Amino acid sequence: MNDPQTAGHAPITLYTSAVCGYCVAAKNFLKSRGLEWNEVRIDLDAAERARMVERTGRTSVPQIFIGETHVGGYDDLVGLQREGRLEGLLAAG
To answer: Which domain holds residue 85?
Structure first.
């Protein structure tokens, strides 16, 4: 999923790696809601890993952004949905 701008919601960026179950879970969560995202594989690009750490202060994946808002990881994303705040964040971007 490479063009989140055309999906009618704020762009979603997922920093991921190949061997990350929570990354797969986050992508499945978004896919089940018909959302698109831009995936940045930090295991393939050291510069992107450094950028992720600079933006988040975290080294674990996934790290999820909706627009410029740092959501956090998979549990944080699901938490936003449970609290009813995900749609507003998607619409705000």
So the answer is: 4-92
Q: What is the pLDDT of residues 4-42, one digit of tens each?
A: 443 589 999 999 999 999 999 999 999 999 999 999 999
Using an 8 Å Cβ cutoff, are 52 and 20 in contact? no
What's the whole-model pTM score?
Answer: 0.89
- Three-state secondary structure along 13-32? EEEECCCCHHHHHHHHHHHH
CATH number for position 53: 3.40.30.10
